[in-house]
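Quick illustration, no need to memorize.
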Amino acid sequence: MESLQILEPAVDASCCTPCGNPAMDADEAQRRALVFKALADPNRLRLLSIVKAGESGEACVCDLTEPMDLGQPTVSHHLKVLVEAGLLNREKRGTWAYYSLVPGALEETAGLLTSL
């Protein structure tokens, strides 16, 4: 029976010195990933577009269900994800919630990849 030889990786001290600090810490990477995950859904992109295009710069959840052709609970879920990602503000007025873009959020989002 032949024995297997375990090979160890070659180590060269003059090569591959790890950099001192990562360019992005884990918290920042998590925050950026949350934004990208929110934007990865076509319904959420449409919701951002509808809110941004509104004359008053805001939209009531009651006005978003029809153009999305989705039920109110589904639209509310997508809006919640966008709020948690820091892209939309939510303001409760009576029974309805109104959504508006967080000032500067889209510009900041556009710069997330270029600042790597």
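The chain has a mean pLDDT of 87.
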